[in-house]
Design brief:
The structure is a single chain. The chain has 236 residues and is an alpha/beta fold. Helices cover 50% and strands 15% of the residues. It contains eight helices and seven strands; from the N terminus they run βαβαβαβαβαβαβαα. It has a seven-stranded parallel beta sheet, with helices on both faces. Helix 1 packs across helix 8, helix 2 packs across helix 7 and helix 3 runs parallel beside helix 4. The longest helix is centred in the last third of the chain and has 32 residues. Bound molecules: adenosine-5'-diphosphate (ADP) and magnesium ion.
């Protein structure tokens, strides 16, 4: 039902990692309630599909690989079958990106703390805003800082955050911290909670980070839906 799209016009921003961590955590949290999560990989490189095909992928994850001809239908079908639909996109602006944004309940914009990354985020926000006009609805988006250092916030990052804030852009309170555990699940499959403590460091902290991040996604979407209901009630 709920569709979360990962977009950025730049490769290497952290889309696949952020999409995979969210998919895994939503599946873990939803398993006891039989909630399915569909992961749609619309990137020809198929990095998130590779993860989902590895051993250890939660059983309630459904994988779909899509291209620009199939993406809209695949999202629509997945919305009927699953509680959550997560779409991972290629790092370029193409038709798939436009289609996915059109269907999104939330667009997550992963961003590493460099000036160049920030410029790419602004480009993608322009695209979301023009899509919102075409769709005649507000398409919510939020910036997720990725590969952050838990101990220090460099000056460049502070500067970027304050510029985003001044521009009125929504930013996640949490970030996706640079962790070996997040790299490990991409390489070996599964979710952070199931990694072997003897082989990978910082598993507990990565698991806490994944939990906080998934909760923030869910709460943001709830908030936007409530705002939307209030708006429709007001305008009849
Ligand atoms: N939170 C993180 N912790 C550690 N490594 C990360 C994290 N996020 C991204 N990376 C690494 O950064 C690189 C690019 O990330 P990726 O998710 O593939 O970006 P994209 O899908 O936007 O191209 C990969 O090597 C990935 O392992
Ligand atoms: Mg990717």
């Amino acid at each position: 039902m709920t569709t979360i799209v990962f977009a950025s016009s730049k490769g290497g921003a952290g889309k696949t990692t952020a999409a995979v961590v969210l998919t895994g955590e939503l599946a873990r949290l939803g398993a006891s309630k039989n909630i399915k999560v569909t992961l749609i990989d619309a990137d020809p490189n198929q990095h998130s599909a590779e993860w989902a095909l590895k051993d250890g992928c939660p059983a309630n994850i459904v994988l779909k690989s899509s291209d620009e001809d199939t993406l809209l239908d695949d999202i629509e079908q997945a919305q009927e079958q699953s509680g959550f639909v997560v779409v991972d996109l290629e790092g370029t602006a193409n038709i798939s990106v436009t289609h996915a944004i059109h269907c999104a309940d939330l667009v997550v914009l992963p961003c590493q703390g460099s000036h160049y990354d920030a410029k790419e985020v602004v480009k993608t926000i322009k695209l979301i805003r023009s899509q919102s006009k075409i769709a005649r609805r507000n398409i919510p988006f939020s910036i997720l800082m990725t590969r952050t250092n838990p101990a220090i916030q460099p000056r460049g990052l502070k500067d970027i955050l304050s510029k985003f804030d001044q521009a009125g852009f929504d930013i996640f309170k949490c970030s996706l911290i640079e962790r070996e555990a997040f790299r490990a699940i991409i390489s070996f499959g599964g979710i952070v909670n199931d990694l072997d403590k003897k082989q990978v460091s910082g598993i507990e902290k990565a698991a806490q980070n994944a939990f906080a991040y998934a909760h923030e996604v869910i709460n943001k979407i709830k908030g936007y839906n409530q705002d939307e209901e209030k708006r429709s009630a007001k305008h009849g």
